[in-house]
Design goal:
Length: 84
């Protein structure tokens, strides 16, 4: 197992363990950092394009539900009485 680890990971394993961080987590962070254009730790509200699109869909869904509820409350039946 140890022979499979990259040399960098072997040298940082003791400090990681003292901080109670699993060495595999560091490897995941490194891969994420390399694969997401250096934005693995975005923070401060900086979202990926996918996260932004999901947020926009959720907001639109909320607005449409509100509009549907308003229209549902405003409907009238065949005798022109408001239905609730």
């Amino acid at each position: 197992m140890i022979s499979e680890c990259p040399p960098l990971l072997l040298s940082v394993t003791p400090p990681l363990r003292s901080l109670e961080i699993n060495p595999n987590m560091l490897g995941r962070w490194i891969k994420e950092h390399e694969s997401v254009d250096g934005q693995a730790f975005r923070g401060n509200g900086k979202l990926t394009a996918e996260q932004l699109e999901i947020r926009q869909f959720l907001e639109e869904n909320h607005r449409l539900k509100m509009a549907k509820d308003i229209l549902k409350k405003a409907t009238v039946d065949s005798t022109w009485r408001r239905t609730v």
